[in-house]
Task: inverse folding
């Protein structure tokens, strides 16, 4: 059976795997190396990682090349983060720009953690768009978990306050907070984020805060600038890389970790409730290189 992740990486892989295969078992010409460099850079894996691969290609003479590239790529990626929530209760803030997949990912995360046996509360803190609350309401019905919202207020911090009070009273293990889309360049909205952190720290100090940024994989390098601003004041705990299905820019995980020290924790592989997986670096690299048999543990 072909895994979802393997399928999702099809476009990122086309090019990469074929071009590396074309130089297997021989000394590549200068033109072939140049072509390989171009193809690799197009996946947005970043200059350093591409240079690593070119070094491996130049040093390796033969059939072990794929293994050597695989090892070099795995070394550049964060270790598997472990998605268990050991410190409970937990307040998970889901943030990012408009359309990056916050609401969808919030629902997928709720579904995943509920499946792991946690008691989950959702908080609809995107108070700027009425449709946003409806969207999360529908998801919460499908996941079958509690949702706290307040259509009377446009103050997200106030909804978070209500949500966490309710989570506290009902002894929820995990509260996932869907926030409004904000441009990383908007000072006021970034300040509002800081207010959210502060109210949780001061009024709900027993909650362990986890901050996740959703990044749209189709944005490639642009998402680096976004992520950088979102963690200008606070270190992010991790990223959800959404829309990995249908993009050729799946290499962005490398610079996200290498340059900004943000580990990808989850990958979004489609629009459905179950289209999300915890990130595993070996599976991901095997997907990029077309090593399907490894991904399936054969
Ligand atoms: N193909 C695909 N679409 C996604 C994924 N995650 C979100 N989307 C779609 O992206 C669009 C925006 O998602 P939404 O969660 O509303 O973004 P938000 O504005 O950040 O809350 C919706 O049409 C989602 O169905 C994903 O992993 N794969
Ligand atoms: Mg939303």
Result:
């Amino acid at each position: 059976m072909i895994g979802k992740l393997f399928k999702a990486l099809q476009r990122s892989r086309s090019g990469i795997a074929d071009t590396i295969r074309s130089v297997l078992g021989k000394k590549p010409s200068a033109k072939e190396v140049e072509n390989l460099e171009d193809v690799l850079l197009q996946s947005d894996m970043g200059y350093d990682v591409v240079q690593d691969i070119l070094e491996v290609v130049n040093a390796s003479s033969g059939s072990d090349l794929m293994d050597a590239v695989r090892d070099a790529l795995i070394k550049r990626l964060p270790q598997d983060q472990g998605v268990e929530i050991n410190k409970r209760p937990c307040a998970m803030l889901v943030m990012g720009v408009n359309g990056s997949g916050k609401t969808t990912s919030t629902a997928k995360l709720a579904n995943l953690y509920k499946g792991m046996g946690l008691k989950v509360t959702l908080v609809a803190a995107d108070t700027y768009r009425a449709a946003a609350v409806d969207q999360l309401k529908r998801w919460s019905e499908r996941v079958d978990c509690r949702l706290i919202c307040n259509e009377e207020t446009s103050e997200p911090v106030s909804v978070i306050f209500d949500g966490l009070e309710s989570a506290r009273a009902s002894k929820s293990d995990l509260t996932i907070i869907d926030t409004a889309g904000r441009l990383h360049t908007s000072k006021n909205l970034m300040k509002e984020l800081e207010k959210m952190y502060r109210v949780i720290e001061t009024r709900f100090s027993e909650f362990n805060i986890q901050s996740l940024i959703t990044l749209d994989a189709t944005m490639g390098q642009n998402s680096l600038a976004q992520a950088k601003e979102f963690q200008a004041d606070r270190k992010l705990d991790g990223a959800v890389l959404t829309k990995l299905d249908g993009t050729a820019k799946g290499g962005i995980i490398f610079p996200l970790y290498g340059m900004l020290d943000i580990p990808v924790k989850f990958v979004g592989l489609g629009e459905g409730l179950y289209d999300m997986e915890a990130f595993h670096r070996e599976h991901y690299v095997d997907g990029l290189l077309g090593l399907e048999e490894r991904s399936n543990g054969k």
Summary: The longest helix spans residues 187-203. Residues 102-103, 126, 132 surround magnesium ion (ligand 2) (CB under 6 Å).
